[in-house]
């Protein structure tokens, strides 16, 4: 039986965005190992037929000793399993897994899910990270890119692998995120779904919410996500004033999408392809997002939503007011066109097919 190892940094990320790939591999009689930190979704992966290996990983930490231990653990596990191919996602599994795969001569397919602020901004750290990617991924069988900007950066920096492939992000399961009935009611409700952090545009969303609520009392502004920065007190204060409704972490965002009319994602964080936007558009919700790679690909400006300048609260307010001015039928039509775009360009089945083709080419 052929063996595939998946290196990931979070159990929910793996289950929510990779389970279709995993299921297809299992159906094709591959033995699938998942190496990641333990969490509740690990049990669901086990039920699918995966062999799961618990390996703690500090996603954001830069402690060289901790990272050296991670590399050592990858080395021991991959040398023991001897997989036919390794799939990896996010920066540390890509880079450290890539180092080990190169040493052990194991075929490796990394997915560039976003490079983070350390790589986007010119700095000493950017140079270090680019060199690490260049060394780690040089012998990779194929690098999967989620957007053209990341692909172009690798080409400019001469970060080469055996092959490149551009895929539509993680794609979206259009059966799970089916077309939802569009809410027709007097109150117009917006939602921000993301980690609550500065780079995701939370400040712009809150500024817009305060202004719009003052001018358009028939609106509501929801926020869903985990606070990663010091925003808890501010959210509580604005909720007390009636500006926003903060839901915290939501296990199934479809329940929020059912009651909202538009998803607002004013991020300026370096993303691969925004899953929030894909899921919202698949559900038939218009979207407002920034003109940056990983977001602009999902919205046709004025057709299924609006594009705004990043870190520009006034532009966001302008586009929200444009949306408010639309009649019910125009809002509904925006959502339907977003659903059509996702079905044609971003269905997860397209991503799964790309992976299977590349895996079979790699291990034939």
Automatic annotation (TrEMBL):
- Taking every annotated instance into account, which residue ranges of this chain make up the domain Glycosyl transferase family? 185-328
Tell me which UniProt keywords the record has, alphabetically: Transferase
Q: What is this protein called?
A: Glycosyl transferase group 1
Spell out the Gene3D superfamilies in the cross-references.
Answer: Glycogen Phosphorylase B
Instruction: Tell me which PANTHER family the record gives.
Output: GLYCOSYLTRANSFERASE (PTHR12526)
Its taxonomic path starts at: Bacteria, Bacillati, Bacillota, Bacilli, Bacillales
Glycosyltransferase subfamily 4-like N-terminal domain segment(s): 5-147
Superkingdom, according to UniProt? Answer: Bacteria
Any one Gene Ontology molecular-function term assigned to this protein's record: glycosyltransferase activity
Q: Mind telling me which InterPro entries this protein's record contains?
A: Glyco_trans_1, Glyco_trans_4-like_N
């Amino acid at each position: 039986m052929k063996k595939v190892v998946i290196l990931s940094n979070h159990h929910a990320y793996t289950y929510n965005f990779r389970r279709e790939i995993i299921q297809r591999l299992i159906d094709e009689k591959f033995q699938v190992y998942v190496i990641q930190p333990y969490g509740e979704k690990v049990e669901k992966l086990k039920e699918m037929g995966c062999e799961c290996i618990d390996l703690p990983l500090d996603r954001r930490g830069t402690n060289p000793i901790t990272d050296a231990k991670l590399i050592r653990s990858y080395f021991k596990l991959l040398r023991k399993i001897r997989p036919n191919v390794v799939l990896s996602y996010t920066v540390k599994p890509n880079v450290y897994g890539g180092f080990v795969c190169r040493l052990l001569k194991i075929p490796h397919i990394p997915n560039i899910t976003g490079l983070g602020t350390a790589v986007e901004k010119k700095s000493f750290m950017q140079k270090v990270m680019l060199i690490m990617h260049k060394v780690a991924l040089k012998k990779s069988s194929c690098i999967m890119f989620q957007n053209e900007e990341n692909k172009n950066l690798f080409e400019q920096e001469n970060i080469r692998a055996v092959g490149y492939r551009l895929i539509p992000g993680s794609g979206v399961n259009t059966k799970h995120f089916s077309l939802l009935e569009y809410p027709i009611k007097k109150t117009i409700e917006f939602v921000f779904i993301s980690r609550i952090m500065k780079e995701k545009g939370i400040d712009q969303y809150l500024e817009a919410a305060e202004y719009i609520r003052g001018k358009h009392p028939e609106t509501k502004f929801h926020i869903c996500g985990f606070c990663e920065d010091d925003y808890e007190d501010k959210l509580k204060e604005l909720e007390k004033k009636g500006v926003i409704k903060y839901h915290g972490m939501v296990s199934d965002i479809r329940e929020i999408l059912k009651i909202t009319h538009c998803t607002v994602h004013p991020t300026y964080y370096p993303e691969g392809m925004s899953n929030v936007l894909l899921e919202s558009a698949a559900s038939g919700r218009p979207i407002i997002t920034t003109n940056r790679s990983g977001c602009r690909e999902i919205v046709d400006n004025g057709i299924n939503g609006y594009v705004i300048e990043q870190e520009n609260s006034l532009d966001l307010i302008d586009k929200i007011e444009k949306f408010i001015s639309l009649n019910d039928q125009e809002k509904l039509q925006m959502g339907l066109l977003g659903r059509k775009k996702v079905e044609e360009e971003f269905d997860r089945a397209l991503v799964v097919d790309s992976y299977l083709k590349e895996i079979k080419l790699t291990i034939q």
